[in-house]
Structures are given as structure tokens and as C-alpha cells.
Design a protein that fits this description.
Elements (H helix, E strand, L loop, with lengths): L12 E2 L2 H14 L4 E5 L7 H6 L3 E6 L2 H10 L7 E3 L7 H5 L5 E5 L5 H10 L6 E7 H8 L9 H9 E9 L4 E2 L6 E8 L9 H13 L5 H4 L1 H4 L18 H14 L2
Parallel strand pairs: 2-3, 2-5, 3-4, 5-6
Antiparallel strand pairs: 1-8, 6-9, 7-9
């Protein structure tokens, strides 16, 4: 039995075992958590190498054909194969309350949403490791000051240290995607929480980048609830601010809006 790649699920199966091993080794060499949830395992190309690393692996896929293949070919995963949509499932019902890492050759059409969901479970997910469309991977790892730096960059970097590991050519997939891929590792940083209102922080970041051609003074007006007070960062565009700058600006808005 083999699994047919389905376009509507964004499936591109990794066929190069050396790349699979390299991804598994990247996680295995740095992991802080032995429990792993692999998203979108397909036919288990990466799964087998994660198992070889003696990790406690669980897999999740929305594709029933992949689920059937894994059940037939990975008896070691009995009871640990979940047919579910990662974006809509309560991860604590699957993984319990203990920490776990998220790993995978992530479906490109939902990769950003996967990262946003991981942020929601940031206190339980010490590491995110895997492959994305290179544009997304570079955006996550990008420092302030460029057009690639955006909402995803700031929100991930607020809670994780990001390493861009390596680029993967499109020819090692079936079917080959039209873009190159990038492998990144996100490791939870030392912040247990942000020193500001975290929901307001998200609003500041999203409001700023949703109108990134404007200065923050103009894009953040609705958050002040009245007269916009003066702050040095308000004269800048959002891509010019670091995570720490956004935290400071959030604190300022919170104080003047009371």
C-alpha cells in the first residue's frame, strides 16, 4: 500500500532518506523533551528516524489513507496514531498535561496556522522543529529591518529562539513543490511570560503589520482610545521594532489607555 499525495491537503512527501535523517538528527541533538508529536507524517519517512532516536513519538494526520498506512506499517505506534486536524484539536486531550515537542514536514498550506497554534500552547511546547516553505521559514527567523520580518516573526521570537537550519531542494519531494523548503528549530526561550498584557501585545503587533506602510502612530490609533500620546516607536514602521520594542510599546499603550 502507498499513499497518494493530495493537493487539497498540501501534501508533498519527502522521499530523500538523508534529508529525513538530517531533520531527525537536528532534533535529536538539541531536544529538551523526549515526547514528540509529528504533524502530517504521510507514509512515515521522517517518523522512522524519530523512532530510531528513541523518542516517544505520536503522530497526527487528517488524511485517513495515511492513517491506515501508518497503522499497517508502524506497529510500534499502536495507540499513538491520531486521525485528527491539528488546528482544531485540543492538544491536551491528545498529549495530556506533560511537555511535548512538535515536529514535522508541515503541510505548506497551513504551516503558519500550525505555528500560531503552537504559540497558544507555548508553555507546554518547548521545541518546534521541522520543514516549511522556505519563505515561511525565513520569515520566522528574520531579524527586524526587512520586508520578510512580520507578525509571525515577532510572535514566535517573543517566546522562542529561532535557528534556520538548512534549505531543502524541491526535487526531493513527490510531487515536487514549486518552491524550496527550509528547516527551522524553535526552542522556548527563558521568558515564562511577557512583562506586558499579552493579548494587547498581539493586538499591537497585528495592527502594526496589517498596515505596515504606515507609521505605528497611524496604525495604532484605535488602541489608544483617544488622543495618541507621544512615544519614539510611534514614528517608526513596524518592521523597525524588535520584540523588546513591541513589549515596551505595549506597556506604554496599556499605561496611557487606563
Amino acid at each position: 500500500m502507498s499513499v497518494r499525495a493530495k493537493k487539497h491537503l498540501g501534501q508533498h512527501f519527502l522521499t530523500d532518506k538523508n534529508i529525513c535523517r538530517k531533520i531527525a538528527d537536528q532534533y535529536g541533538s538539541h531536544h529538551t523533551c523526549n515526547r514528540v508529536l509529528e504533524i502530517g507524517p504521510g507514509m512515515g519517512a521522517l517518523t522512522s528516524f524519530l523512532i530510531d532516536r528513541k523518542l516517544d513519538v505520536r503522530v497526527m494526520d487528517v488524511d485517513s489513507e495515511s492513517i491506515e498506512y501508518l497503522q499497517q506499517n508502524f506497529p510500534v505506534l499502536h495507540g499513538k496514531i491520531h486521525e485528527a486536524d491539528f488546528l482544531n484539536v485540543d492538544l491536551r486531550e491528545v498529549m495530556g498535561e506533560e511537555p511535548f515537542s512538535v515536529v514535522g514536514n508541515f503541510p505548506y498550506n497551513i504551516s503558519s496556522q500550525i505555528l500560531f497554534k503552537c504559540i497558544d500552547y507555548k508553555d507546554q511546547i518547548p521545541e518546534i522543529m521541522g520543514m516549511f516553505q522556505r519563505e515561511v521559514a525565513m520569515r520566522v527567523a528574520e531579524p527586524p529591518g526587512s520586508k520578510q520580518y512580520g507578525i509571525l516573526s515577532v510572535l514566535l521570537q517573543a517566546y522562542y529562539d529561532i535557528d534556520y537550519c538548512f534549505t531543502v531542494d524541491e526535487r526531493v519531494f513527490h510531487p515536487p513543490p514549486k518552491v524550496k523548503s527550509g528547516v527551522i528549530r524553535c526552542t522556548r526561550n527563558s521568558r515564562t511570560s511577557l512583562p506586558c498584557d499579552e493579548e494587547l501585545f498581539k493586538k499591537v503587533v497585528k495592527s502594526g503589520f496589517n498596515q505596515r506602510r504606515k507609521t505605528l502612530r497611524n496604525s495604532l490609533k484605535p488602541l489608544f482610545g483617544g488622543t495618541v500620546e507621544d512615544h519614539p516607536s510611534l514614528a517608526k514602521r513596524p518592521e523597525q521594532l524588535s520584540v523588546e520594542d513591541f513589549i515596551e510599546l505595549t506597556q506604554f499603550i496599556s499605561n496611557v489607555s487606563k
